[in-house]
Design a protein that fits this description.
- The complex is a heterodimer of chains A (112) and B (112).
- Chain A has 112 residues and is mainly beta.
- Chain A has no helices and twelve strands.
- Helices cover 0% and strands 50% of the residues of chain A.
- In chain A, a hairpin with a 5-residue loop joins strand 5 and strand 6.
- Chain B is mostly beta strands.
- In chain B, strands 2, 4, 5, 6, 9, 10 and 11 form a seven-stranded mixed sheet that branches.
- Classes of the chains: A mainly beta (112), B mainly beta (112).
- Chains A and B meet through strand 5 and strand 6 of A and strand 10 of B.
Protein backbone atom coordinates (compact mmCIF):
# COMPACT_ATOMS: atom_id res chain seq x y z
CA UNK A 1 0.00 0.00 0.00
CA UNK A 2 0.89 3.67 -0.06
CA UNK A 3 3.37 4.80 2.55
CA UNK A 4 5.79 7.51 3.64
CA UNK A 5 9.21 6.91 5.18
CA UNK A 6 11.08 9.65 7.05
CA UNK A 7 14.54 9.66 8.53
CA UNK A 8 14.66 8.75 12.19
CA UNK A 9 15.29 11.57 14.61
CA UNK A 10 16.05 13.41 16.62
CA UNK A 11 18.03 15.81 14.48
CA UNK A 12 20.14 18.15 16.61
CA UNK A 13 21.68 21.25 15.01
CA UNK A 14 23.28 24.52 15.97
CA UNK A 15 21.68 27.77 14.91
CA UNK A 16 22.45 28.74 11.29
CA UNK A 17 23.30 25.16 10.29
CA UNK A 18 21.95 23.58 7.11
CA UNK A 19 19.00 21.23 7.53
CA UNK A 20 17.94 18.21 5.50
CA UNK A 21 15.17 15.85 6.56
CA UNK A 22 14.78 12.95 4.15
CA UNK A 23 11.40 11.68 3.00
CA UNK A 24 10.65 8.96 0.48
CA UNK A 25 7.29 7.61 -0.54
CA UNK A 26 5.59 4.63 -2.12
CA UNK A 27 2.42 5.28 -4.07
CA UNK A 28 0.64 4.31 -7.24
CA UNK A 29 -0.05 7.11 -9.66
CA UNK A 30 0.92 10.70 -8.99
CA UNK A 31 0.41 11.71 -5.37
CA UNK A 32 0.51 15.20 -3.91
CA UNK A 33 3.19 15.64 -1.27
CA UNK A 34 3.21 17.74 1.89
CA UNK A 35 5.35 18.75 4.83
CA UNK A 36 3.63 19.56 8.11
CA UNK A 37 5.21 21.01 11.26
CA UNK A 38 4.10 20.53 14.86
CA UNK A 39 5.36 22.98 17.47
CA UNK A 40 5.26 21.93 21.14
CA UNK A 41 1.74 21.84 22.54
CA UNK A 42 0.09 22.48 19.18
CA UNK A 43 -1.51 20.60 16.32
CA UNK A 44 0.09 20.11 12.91
CA UNK A 45 0.37 23.02 10.49
CA UNK A 46 0.88 22.79 6.74
CA UNK A 47 4.41 24.00 5.96
CA UNK A 48 4.58 23.45 2.19
CA UNK A 49 3.28 21.24 -0.58
CA UNK A 50 3.93 20.09 -4.15
CA UNK A 51 1.35 18.58 -6.44
CA UNK A 52 3.36 17.31 -9.41
CA UNK A 53 6.82 16.12 -10.36
CA UNK A 54 9.59 18.74 -10.25
CA UNK A 55 7.41 21.19 -8.33
CA UNK A 56 9.21 22.98 -5.51
CA UNK A 57 7.23 23.90 -2.41
CA UNK A 58 8.63 26.66 -0.21
CA UNK A 59 7.63 28.55 2.92
CA UNK A 60 9.47 30.31 5.79
CA UNK A 61 12.86 29.48 4.25
CA UNK A 62 12.05 25.78 3.95
CA UNK A 63 12.03 24.07 0.54
CA UNK A 64 11.24 20.63 -0.83
CA UNK A 65 11.29 19.40 -4.43
CA UNK A 66 9.02 16.62 -5.71
CA UNK A 67 11.39 14.08 -7.30
CA UNK A 68 9.48 11.35 -9.07
CA UNK A 69 12.58 9.52 -10.29
CA UNK A 70 13.76 8.99 -6.70
CA UNK A 71 10.27 9.07 -5.11
CA UNK A 72 11.55 11.66 -2.65
CA UNK A 73 10.47 14.96 -1.12
CA UNK A 74 13.35 15.99 1.14
CA UNK A 75 12.91 19.06 3.34
CA UNK A 76 15.77 21.60 3.40
CA UNK A 77 16.56 24.91 5.02
CA UNK A 78 19.77 26.83 4.56
CA UNK A 79 20.03 28.35 8.04
CA UNK A 80 17.93 27.03 10.90
CA UNK A 81 16.82 29.05 13.91
CA UNK A 82 16.00 28.02 17.47
CA UNK A 83 12.35 28.74 16.67
CA UNK A 84 12.41 25.96 14.03
CA UNK A 85 12.61 23.34 16.79
CA UNK A 86 9.56 21.16 16.21
CA UNK A 87 8.42 17.82 14.80
CA UNK A 88 8.25 17.64 11.01
CA UNK A 89 5.91 15.26 9.18
CA UNK A 90 6.04 14.24 5.54
CA UNK A 91 2.68 13.22 4.03
CA UNK A 92 1.11 12.19 0.77
CA UNK A 93 -2.31 12.25 -0.80
CA UNK A 94 -2.45 9.28 -3.14
CA UNK A 95 -5.68 9.97 -4.96
CA UNK A 96 -8.76 12.12 -4.80
CA UNK A 97 -11.15 11.09 -2.08
CA UNK A 98 -8.58 9.49 0.21
CA UNK A 99 -7.15 10.92 3.42
CA UNK A 100 -3.51 11.94 3.83
CA UNK A 101 -0.92 9.34 4.80
CA UNK A 102 1.72 10.58 7.24
CA UNK A 103 5.25 9.55 8.07
CA UNK A 104 6.32 8.96 11.68
CA UNK A 105 7.69 12.47 12.11
CA UNK A 106 11.22 13.77 12.69
CA UNK A 107 12.07 15.83 15.74
CA UNK A 108 14.35 18.79 15.11
CA UNK A 109 16.13 20.48 17.99
CA UNK A 110 18.11 23.67 17.29
CA UNK A 111 20.38 25.18 19.94
CA UNK A 112 21.88 28.67 20.08
CA UNK B 1 -5.94 30.66 15.95
CA UNK B 2 -6.04 27.69 13.58
CA UNK B 3 -9.72 27.84 12.64
CA UNK B 4 -10.19 24.42 14.23
CA UNK B 5 -10.99 24.46 17.94
CA UNK B 6 -10.81 21.41 20.18
CA UNK B 7 -12.10 21.09 23.72
CA UNK B 8 -11.05 20.20 26.27
CA UNK B 9 -7.28 20.65 25.90
CA UNK B 10 -6.59 18.10 28.62
CA UNK B 11 -8.73 15.25 29.93
CA UNK B 12 -8.08 12.66 32.61
CA UNK B 13 -10.60 9.85 32.87
CA UNK B 14 -10.97 6.51 34.55
CA UNK B 15 -11.57 3.32 32.61
CA UNK B 16 -15.25 3.24 33.57
CA UNK B 17 -15.99 6.87 32.68
CA UNK B 18 -17.83 8.23 29.66
CA UNK B 19 -16.58 11.47 28.16
CA UNK B 20 -16.70 13.29 24.84
CA UNK B 21 -14.17 15.29 22.85
CA UNK B 22 -15.44 18.19 20.80
CA UNK B 23 -14.13 19.75 17.60
CA UNK B 24 -15.45 22.81 15.80
CA UNK B 25 -14.25 24.34 12.54
CA UNK B 26 -15.06 27.79 11.17
CA UNK B 27 -13.40 27.34 7.78
CA UNK B 28 -16.38 26.19 5.75
CA UNK B 29 -14.73 22.84 5.11
CA UNK B 30 -16.63 19.72 4.09
CA UNK B 31 -14.40 16.99 5.51
CA UNK B 32 -13.47 16.38 9.15
CA UNK B 33 -11.12 13.86 10.73
CA UNK B 34 -10.03 12.32 14.00
CA UNK B 35 -6.38 11.32 14.38
CA UNK B 36 -4.61 9.65 17.29
CA UNK B 37 -1.02 10.67 18.04
CA UNK B 38 0.95 8.42 20.37
CA UNK B 39 4.61 8.72 21.29
CA UNK B 40 6.99 7.08 18.81
CA UNK B 41 4.17 5.93 16.49
CA UNK B 42 2.91 7.32 13.19
CA UNK B 43 -0.12 9.54 13.21
CA UNK B 44 -3.11 7.17 13.11
CA UNK B 45 -6.18 8.12 11.12
CA UNK B 46 -9.28 7.05 13.04
CA UNK B 47 -12.34 8.44 11.27
CA UNK B 48 -13.21 10.58 8.26
CA UNK B 49 -16.44 12.41 7.59
CA UNK B 50 -17.37 13.97 4.26
CA UNK B 51 -20.47 16.15 4.17
CA UNK B 52 -21.47 14.67 7.56
CA UNK B 53 -21.23 11.08 6.30
CA UNK B 54 -18.62 8.74 7.70
CA UNK B 55 -16.39 7.58 4.85
CA UNK B 56 -13.54 5.91 6.71
CA UNK B 57 -13.24 3.92 9.92
CA UNK B 58 -9.77 2.51 10.28
CA UNK B 59 -10.59 -0.53 12.40
CA UNK B 60 -11.11 1.63 15.46
CA UNK B 61 -12.39 -0.18 18.58
CA UNK B 62 -16.06 0.41 19.38
CA UNK B 63 -15.16 2.15 22.64
CA UNK B 64 -14.51 5.17 20.37
CA UNK B 65 -17.72 6.46 18.81
CA UNK B 66 -17.70 9.47 16.46
CA UNK B 67 -20.58 11.80 15.77
CA UNK B 68 -20.85 14.51 13.13
CA UNK B 69 -24.14 16.41 13.54
CA UNK B 70 -23.21 19.01 10.91
CA UNK B 71 -20.24 19.92 8.75
CA UNK B 72 -18.84 22.29 11.40
CA UNK B 73 -18.87 19.98 14.42
CA UNK B 74 -17.32 16.64 15.20
CA UNK B 75 -17.41 14.68 18.44
CA UNK B 76 -15.57 11.64 19.71
CA UNK B 77 -17.49 9.81 22.43
CA UNK B 78 -15.36 7.72 24.75
CA UNK B 79 -16.39 4.89 27.06
CA UNK B 80 -14.61 2.08 28.92
CA UNK B 81 -11.22 3.13 27.60
CA UNK B 82 -7.93 1.40 28.33
CA UNK B 83 -4.67 2.98 29.57
CA UNK B 84 -3.12 2.39 26.13
CA UNK B 85 -5.71 4.79 24.70
CA UNK B 86 -3.86 7.63 26.40
CA UNK B 87 -2.64 9.89 23.59
CA UNK B 88 -3.09 13.24 21.88
CA UNK B 89 -6.31 13.23 19.84
CA UNK B 90 -6.21 15.61 16.92
CA UNK B 91 -9.14 16.89 14.93
CA UNK B 92 -8.63 18.23 11.41
CA UNK B 93 -10.71 19.59 8.57
CA UNK B 94 -10.21 20.13 4.85
CA UNK B 95 -12.12 21.46 1.86
CA UNK B 96 -12.19 17.98 0.35
CA UNK B 97 -10.89 14.66 1.57
CA UNK B 98 -7.52 14.86 -0.23
CA UNK B 99 -6.96 18.59 0.32
CA UNK B 100 -4.45 19.97 2.85
CA UNK B 101 -5.55 19.51 6.43
CA UNK B 102 -6.10 22.17 9.07
CA UNK B 103 -5.51 20.78 12.55
CA UNK B 104 -6.72 21.79 15.97
CA UNK B 105 -4.34 21.85 18.92
CA UNK B 106 -5.54 18.49 20.16
CA UNK B 107 -6.90 17.01 23.38
CA UNK B 108 -4.32 15.34 25.61
CA UNK B 109 -6.15 12.31 27.01
CA UNK B 110 -4.91 10.32 29.98
CA UNK B 111 -6.75 7.13 30.97
CA UNK B 112 -6.10 5.98 34.51
Amino acid sequence: GDSVTQMEGPVTLSEEAFLTINCTYTATGYPSLFWYVQYPGEGLQLLLKATKADDKGSNKGFEATYRKETTSFHLEKGSVQVSDSAVYFCALSAKAGTALIFGKGTTLSVSS
Amino acid sequence: ETGVTQTPRHLVMGMTNKKSLKCEQHLGHNAMYWYKQSAKKPLELMFVYNFKEQTENNSVPSRFSPECPNSSHLFLHLHTLQPEDSALYLCASSEASSSPLHFGNGTRLTVT
